[in-house]
UniProtKB/TrEMBL annotation:
Cofactor-binding details, from the entry: Binds 1 FAD per subunit.
Region ranges (Disordered): 522-542
InterPro entries in UniProt: Crypto/Photolyase_FAD-like_sf, Crypto/Photolyase_N_sf, Cryptochr/Photolyase_FAD-bd, Cryptochrome/DNA_photolyase_1, DNA_photolyase_N, Rossmann-like_a/b/a_fold
PANTHER family the record matches: CRYPTOCHROME (PTHR11455), CRYPTOCHROME CIRCADIAN CLOCK 5 ISOFORM X1 (PTHR11455:SF9)
Lineage: Eukaryota, Rhodophyta, Stylonematophyceae, Stylonematales, Stylonemataceae
Organism of this sequence: Rhodosorus marinus
Site (Electron transfer via tryptophanyl radical): 345, 399, 422
Identification of the protein by name: Photolyase/cryptochrome alpha/beta domain-containing protein
Keywords: FAD, Flavoprotein, Nucleotide-binding
One function term, GO molecular function aspect: FAD binding
Length: 542
């Protein structure tokens, strides 16, 4: 009998017009063969028992309403050419790996809510499997697909494998209230027990799709356009690259054992952290594999660093933010988000554009944004610097605007992680020391006094003497002319005076915090809840 096999335990009756052993594994994120329990389930259903004649159809649906293809640099789309290229690499690599096992990837075009039901019927699928995704768009889409599948008697098998733990299990263990502090979250994971070992894909060939059931339209590979295909990519996509990068990152066990995040550099020319995030975000690398490889190294180096600063600590941040994002209503925006401070940000598209396109007049900020646009990855502290600058530090623009710019360019763009970190940096949630602001001048100098990073990403400043590289507007006119960069002509004057703007913004933050505290206290008095002074936090997704 077909039916839903997940926490609901629901089983719908089979309609009979399906081949029980035919499985469709729907790749979305989780673009890998290793440690992919939903894929394993599909493979097992094809090759085991009475349904040994089953076929596995591996599918990726390119939803053009969300993945509009960029045609040129100026064409403003939701996802940059580099992000598209990365995804394209991931799909090619997945197809290669499946072919080595006797199968292949089918890439379809269209709205998954329409495409999947159509293909479930056409391919006479008995079981649909996929990795659970917790972004709101995905959950809405998946609910519609599940409903159709179950009505048709198709078994639906869904697994959390994007995270170290099953997020539903963490939600249940916390009584539906994921702790809002890192320490609290660590305690919760300690109660949840050890991180499970990764699972291996069953050995042997994978039965490929029944080509007779595949229409001409779905026999063709959906390729990307020339502009995207020719976009240079520093970090190529795919599971093969991910596993290679994991090996390189862990090749110096001492470095791994001594890793402490704040001590890494935001502006070194070679990344000072692993750059595994794009591979984790697209699911080319399993977080459990990463976790256990680290655990093996720690076991051989008893004096290793520990959370929050260690690499295990970074993976716990990732877990924490996924869990909070999963259990908070309206997490992706300020309004209606109960854990987010309500702050009256301005909306000024000129300032936002100047920030996005490296025209703030602060070389450190502009170089970081240039690296983001060109390469799709920037260091964590560089993200801190530009996020603080855009919001509470200097420009007083909403974190929601910043998050959508990041989402466009980041190869590791991930809904929960991006939103959480923007909430943190704008002092809207998790972190409340709004009076601690990054200086767009002195912060970068600490790790790169010569400004080599700025010279690389802002070539217009490459000949500026190092004395002026972080504040070129202070250079005498003759120096600017000798450097071939006249400020106000070749490179902009600072868009705001940091010393003035940051002070004014701190005052605005103070007022916003006070208004919110007063509102909370008067609400709780009205409700007669004078004991704690806190309103009950209502942040569950229904
Ligand atoms: C404003 C802002 C937006 C961000 N948006 C994203 C995003 O969309 N996607 C994303 O993966 N990370 C995001 N981060 C978190 C962090 O900057 C990146 O995960 C990290 O820099 C990736 O580089 P790495 O792989 O070398 O990290 P490492 O230091 O090598 O850490 C290993 C892994 O731990 C995880 N990790 C590390 N730091 C964090 C963190 N603060 N939050 C969540 N996970 C973390 C990542 O998966 C990372 O690959 C954001 C940070 C800020 C400040």
């Amino acid at each position: 009998m077909g039916g839903m096999v997940d926490s609901t335990g629901f089983c719908a009756p089979s309609t009979g017009n399906i081949v029980k052993g035919n499985a469709l594994h729907w790749f979305r994120h989780g673009l890998r063969l290793h440690d992919n329990p939903a894929l394993n389930h599909a493979v097992c259903r094809c090759v085991e028992g009475s349904s040994a004649s089953g076929r596995l159809f591996c599918l990726f649906v390119v939803d053009r309403s969300r993945f509009e293809l960029p045609r040129d640099e100026a064409h403003n789309v939701r996802m940059s050419a580099a992000r598209h290229r990365f995804l394209h690499d991931c799909l090619r690599d997945l197809d290669d790996s499946l072919r080595q096992r006797g199968s292949r990837l089918i890439v379809a075009l269209g709205d998954p809510v329409k495409v999947i039901p159509q293909l479930l019927t056409e391919w006479r699928i008995g079981v649909l499997t996929y990795e659970k995704d917790v972004a709101p768009y995905s959950m809405e889409r998946d609910a519609l697909v599940n409903k159709f599948a179950m009505e048709q008697g198709v078994e639906v098998y869904v697994q959390h494998s994007k995270t170290l733990y099953d997020l539903d299990m963490l939600k249940d263990k916390s009584g539906g209230r994921i702790p809002l502090t890192y320490n609290g979250f660590q305690k919760l994971t300690a109660q949840a027990g050890r991180v499970a070992k990764p699972v291996a894909l069953p050995e042997g060939p994978i039965p490929g799709p029944d080509e007779n059931l595949i229409s001409e339209e779905h026999k063709q590979w959906i390729d990307t356009n020339e502009y995207v295909a020719n976009t240079p990519l520093l970090f190529p996509g795919g599971e093969t690259e991910a596993l290679k990068r994991l090996e390189t990152s862990l090749s110096d066990p001492k470095w791994v054992a001594n890793f402490e995040k704040p001590k890494t550099s935001p502006n070194s020319l070679d990344p000072s952290t692993t750059v595994l995030s794009p591979y984790l975000a697209m699911g080319c690398l399993s977080p459990k594999v990463f976790w256990h490889r680290l655990a093996d190294i720690y076991a051989r180096h008893p004096k290793h660093s520990v959370p929050p600063v260690s690499l295990h600590g970074q993976l716990l941040f990732r877990e924490y933010f996924h869990a909070v994002g999963y259990t908070t209503d309206n997490f992706g925006r300020m309004e209606g988000n109960a854990i987010c401070k309500q702050i009256p940000w301005d909306r000024n598209d000129e300032l936002l554009d100047a920030w996005e396109y490296s025209r703030t007049g602060y070389p450190f900020i502009d170089a970081i944004m240039a690296q983001l646009r060109m390469e799709g990855w920037i260091h964590h502290l560089a993200r801190h610097a530009v996020a603080c600058f855009l919001t509470r530090g200097d420009l007083w623009q909403s974190w929601e605007q910043g998050a959508s710019v990041f989402e466009k360019y980041l190869l590791d763009g991930d809904w929960s992680l991006n939103i959480s970190n923007w909430l943190w940096l704008s002092s809207s949630a998790f972190f409340y020391q709004y009076f601690r602001v990054y200086s767009p001048i002195s912060f970068g100098k600490k790790t790169d006094p010569n400004g080599d990073y700025i010279r690389k990403y802002l070539p217009v400043l490459k000949n500026m003497p190092h004395k002026y590289i972080y504040e070129p507007w202070t250079a005498p006119k003759e120096v600017q002319m000798r450097a071939g960069c006249v400020i106000g002509k070749d490179y902009p004057m600072p868009i705001v005076d940091h010393a003035v703007a940051s002070k004014q913004n701190m005052q605005k933050m103070k007022v916003a915090y006070e208004i919110q505290a007063n509102r909370i206290s008067s609400n709780s008095k009205k409700k007669g809840n004078s004991k704690s002074g806190d309103p009950p936090i209502k942040r569950r997704r229904l």
